[in-house]
Write a structure and sequence with these properties.
The complex is a heterodimer of chains A (224) and B (199).
Chain A (H helix, E strand, L loop, with lengths): L5 H9 L5 H13 L1 H17 L20 H11 L2 H23 L2 E5 L2 E5 L11 H92 L1
Antiparallel strand pairs in A: 1-2
Helix pairs in contact in A: 1-3, 2-3
Chain B lengths: L2 H9 L3 H23 L2 H18 L9 H23 L28 H4 L2 H13 L3 H12 L4 H8 L3 H21 L4 H7 L1
Helix pairs in contact in B: 1-2, 2-3, 2-4, 2-7, 3-4, 4-8, 7-9, 8-9
Classes of the chains: A mainly alpha (224), B mainly alpha (199).
Chain lengths: 224, 199
């Protein structure tokens, strides 16, 4: 065993990372080689001395909580990871769109005219209309008149419906009364017919009785 | 409950599982970062940044069983970034540095030994300070391997995976780092006799 190649084996032996067979060989060599034995002793004592350096660990108190990253932060981090070129390519249009939107919001206009709502966006402030209040007043008055007309029309329609219903109801009553009258007349007529037949029957009976009496009386006179 | 189980629970929406993972790892991670960078406040910041990064990127970890090397790798990269930043601003690196601040190797400035006896100098805390300064004097690649092996108890295979280096490279760095460390301590103005006794 060459002493020049012993460095790896010596450190393995010092730190106990050697299999039994190889350790026996090394131990045997150390017994016969003073320089290697001295080198081994020096390494071992240095290692032992190093063990006297003790470190007191301070309280670190690391505690992790669930990380909640806002969507904005995620976007910002993604943007930060982009190259400068891509940042400009993304950032400039976004910035321009944001500026346009803000301008549009600040110059947002709504207008009600002739029964219609008009909405307008403009990049630059438009001219202020001095008659805007007058227009609103006129529109309001017009709306009031339209409302009045609508109400009167509704009243007319209601009256017409009521009249119509009344007329229909009266017509129904008249029809009903006529029907009842006809019925009564029919009954009366039937009754009179009945009475007449009855009377004729009696008359014929009476007539027959009288005729019988007359014949009887005539017969008796003839016999005498 | 293994790290992989906690990771899966966290990915399923349980924030409590992630906190359990943090509380499990905050001490070893702080020890690693502090021993690598040498400043307590900076170490706290780096630990916090590491956990935040893990919180945000845990979904990308394909194999939850590789969480350990992954977390060390993140922390180590942050330590390197911090070192570059300080170097750029020409900031001091240690919080307990004293002596000639303009000295080329400030770590070698040991307190005046006449004021105390050797036995008093080998006070536990002072010994720790000395060892700390000696380790900070090492090149970064040796220091990181020593910290991972000596203090984090990682195996050579794990260190190799974190650093993305061959195992033999890791062992070489450890070997030469320990030798350099010994030389620093022996060559320092510290009482050699006391130091050698400790060693």
């Amino acid at each position: 065993m060459k002493c020049n190649d012993m460095s790896h084996q010596l450190v393995s032996l010092v730190y106990g990372e050697m299999d039994t067979e190889e350790e026996k060989k090394i131990q045997a060599h150390l017994k016969s080689c003073p320089s290697c034995r001295e080198a081994f002793q020096e390494l071992k004592s240095t290692s032992k001395l190093l063990g006297k350096w003790e470190v007191e660990t301070p309280k670190l108190n690391f505690v992790f909580v669930n990380e909640s990253i806002s969507r904005w932060k995620t976007w910002i981090e993604k943007l930060a990871n982009l190259s400068w070129g891509r940042r400009l390519a993304v950032g400039i249009p976004v910035f321009a769109a944001a500026v346009l939107i803000l301008l549009a919001i600040f110059n947002f206009q709504t207008e009600y005219r002739e029964g219609q709502w008009n909405v307008s966006f403009s990049l630059f402030p438009g001219k202020q209309n001095g008659n805007q209040e007058q227009i609103f007043a006129q529109a309001l008055e017009q709306k009031q008149q339209e409302t009045l007309l609508l109400i009167s029309k509704m009243i007319e329609d209601s009256e017409y419906r009521q009249r119509r219903e009344s007329t229909l109801t009266l017509a129904k009553y008249a029809q009903e009364i006529e029907r009842q009258r006809q019925e009564d007349l029919r009954i009366v007529g039937q009754s009179l017919v009945g009475i007449q037949r009855n009377t004729e029957g009696r008359f014929h009976q009476t007539n027959d009785v009288i005729n019988d009496l007359i014949r009887l009386t005539s017969f008796k006179l003839e016999k005498k | 409950m293994t790290d992989a189980v906690l990771i899966q629970q966290f990915l399923d929406g349980e924030i409590g599982a992630f906190n359990t993972l943090v509380w499990r790892w905050e001490k070893p991670l702080f020890n690693f970062v502090y021993r690598t960078i040498g400043n307590e406040e900076t170490a706290k910041d780096i630990c916090q940044t590491t956990f935040i990064r893990i919180y945000r990127e845990l979904k990308r970890l394909r194999d939850p069983d590789k969480f350990s090397p992954w977390i060390y790798r993140i922390a180590l990269n942050l330590c390197r970034d911090e070192h570059k930043r300080r170097k750029k601003r020409n900031l001091l690196y240690f919080d307990d540095f004293f002596g000639d601040q303009n000295a080329s190797n400030p770590v070698m400035q040991i307190p005046d030994q006449d004021a105390k006896t050797p036995e008093e100098l080998v006070d536990h805390q002072e010994l720790g300070d000395i060892l700390k300064r000696a380790i900070m004097a090492l090149p970064e690649e040796q220091r990181v391997v020593i910290v991972m092996k000596q203090y984090q108890g990682l195996k050579f295979t794990e260190i190799a995976e974190i650093l993305k280096q061959p195992i033999n490279t890791v062992k070489s760095r450890l070997y030469y780092g320990l030798r350099a460390l010994r030389k620093i301590l022996v060559d320092s103005k510290f009482n050699k006799e006391v130091l050698l006794n400790e060693m």
